[in-house]
Backbone:
């Protein structure tokens, strides 16, 4: 059993801990947190050993009635690998701690690429990272993960001459009431390209991609408006088929009448998903359209959870000899990735193929 | 003096009436409205003869203390041309009324293109419409106007191989409290292309353009994320210069620190603009970027007002022999279009040229 430490127990950290706990070959060595808030209390009740990430705040955990299993160093010593899920920029500061104990570590996409020896997306470059023997690996951000998952198969199948995407980003997560905007549509960043295109190139180095970022008053998911100029012509129905074959792409059937992220979240909650998570890219089948060699589609990306299965795969890529396909299947099975499992969902998806087929009318 | 009737006195109608009243060669023959709400009362106080558009509601105007100058037929008889500013779909029903009196009419972009004999955008096709002797002319919608104003000069200067735009649309106007979404990012329409690209082709028939629509929880302006594959290479600074030369494009200087529509509206209000209107496309100078032959930029479009000067020009195109350039200058002067008039604004714009020049670094 791989013993996995999780440093940082916020939006990503708590999901990574649960995803690790669900794997047959992994267990949670413990989680580290700076403050004993409601999330720390929940971690304790879930049975995860809670470590005080800052020695000077250890008393606060005692005061809050959250038993402290140790400090951050103790957690690193207990762990075969640490998944750093601390806020952007803190991961870079933590690398020295992991190196001091010669413990491999994963970092999140909020860190600069140079925090680690390699950047990772299971669909794009699992094998390269595994072969590199990199022990410090950065899992790319939610948006970059979302782009990589569709651009990799499109490039393999049709060749990508140039990809262009406008990322209509949520202003903050549901648990970030202090973020904005309230009533505005912000070019963010106002300069072009945004960092997402170059970030895709950390896992797909040869792919031409330009991205533009916009931030809006919503919290549920990002929405990507994607254009790909393909190297070869393709029917919309064939592209839909290509994306259907991707285990972490959910092709939203046209007749499911999913208007946007709120419906997707509702669907995930109705399906009993933990926290209503959507680990998959959600691509609207109806939106897939081809004009000449220009492909267009919309996809929604759940910023809180799409990187979670990627972190699990990255653990195996760094610590084991498991191959990409095997790891992805295992991760998906343990988490329940894919809406195609139930008879009912298969029916909805099958009905949706009609809409898909007609998208290129 | 051209006597102009305005049928429909909502968001667009009241602005068109004021813009007509500001022109030296036009006067407002009267306005027609279906209900005697706060806007009807304001029209009366401004001195516009208020007509009851529906005979069966005429008593309601009396009850509300808004004197009725006549019915819709009376207004059409009084007018040399009627600008129909009724809700989408009603204009088509009204055409028979205007034809019955042999009175030319303008329609708004919410109507289908076939409501009229020609579609109009001053920058794209004033001369063609004037030469056609069309008496029923549709002024294209706010988004289509915004796209046409930049694509026409880019096509003339560099050639447009293909334009692609994601239109991040406001959910509703500030005066539409019943519209949504509240916390969502909707593909709208989910099918690609949205109607905007084909609509651009009603005024620029030979231009290749694909558009995607997204609707978000904001009310102030639309935001366009624009990509144009040019036929010839161009420096970002040269493109900025091309757009600066357009009288209805406001190149937002980088050092003005305009984060988004809210800042633009604040700026327009500080400048004393009526209703804080922004008649110009607002293009962020900092956003103008070129990768190979791919040009990118962001522009904000004020859905309530950018078509207002276009309606004024369309009146002249239909009713007079005024040439395009002369009409545009006259309309701009009378309304105060352009932020380059004051010494202070010239200074801000001049400072901004530094940011523009560095946009292609």
Residues:
């Amino acid at each position: 059993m791989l013993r996995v430490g999780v440093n940082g127990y916020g939006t990503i950290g708590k999901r990574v801990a649960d995803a690790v706990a669900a794997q047959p070959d992994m267990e949670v060595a413990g989680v580290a947190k700076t403050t004993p808030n409601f999330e720390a209390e929940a971690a304790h009740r879930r049975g995860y050993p809670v470590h005080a990430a800052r020695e000077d705040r250890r008393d606060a955990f005692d005061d809050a009635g959250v038993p402290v299993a140790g400090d951050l160093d103790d957690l690193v010593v207990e762990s075969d690998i640490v998944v750093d899920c601390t806020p952007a920029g803190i991961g870079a500061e933590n690398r020295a701690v992991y190196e001091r104990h010669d413990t491999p570590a994963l970092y999140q996409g909020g860190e600069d690429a140079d925090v680690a020896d390699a950047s990772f997306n299971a669909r794009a470059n699992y094998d390269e990272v595994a072969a590199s023997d990199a022990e410090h690996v950065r899992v790319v951000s939610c948006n970059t993960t979302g782009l990589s998952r569709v651009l990799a198969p499109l490039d393999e199948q049709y060749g990508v001459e140039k990809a262009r995407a406008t990322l209509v980003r949520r202003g903050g997560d549901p648990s970030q009431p202090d973020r904005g905007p309230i009533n505005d549509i912000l070019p963010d960043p106002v300069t072009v390209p945004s960092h997402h295109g170059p970030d895709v190139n950390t896992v797909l180095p040869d792919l031409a991609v330009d991205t533009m970022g916009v931030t809006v008053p919503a919290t549920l998911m990002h929405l990507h408006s994607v254009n790909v100029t393909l190297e070869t012509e393709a029917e919309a129905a064939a592209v839909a088929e290509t994306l259907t074959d991707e285990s972490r792409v959910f092709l939203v059937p046209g007749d499911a009448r999913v208007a946007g992220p709120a419906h997707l979240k509702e669907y995930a909650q109705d399906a009993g998903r933990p926290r209503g998570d959507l680990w998959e890219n959600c691509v609207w089948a109806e939106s897939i359209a081809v004009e000449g060699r220009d492909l267009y589609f919309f996809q929604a990306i759940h910023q809180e959870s799409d990187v979670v299965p990627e972190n699990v795969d990255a653990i195996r890529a760094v610590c084991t000899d498991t191959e990409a396909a095997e790891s992805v299947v295992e991760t998906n099975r343990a988490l329940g990735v894919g809406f195609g499992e139930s008879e009912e969902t298969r029916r909805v998806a099958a009905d949706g193929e009609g809409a898909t087929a007609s998208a290129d009318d």
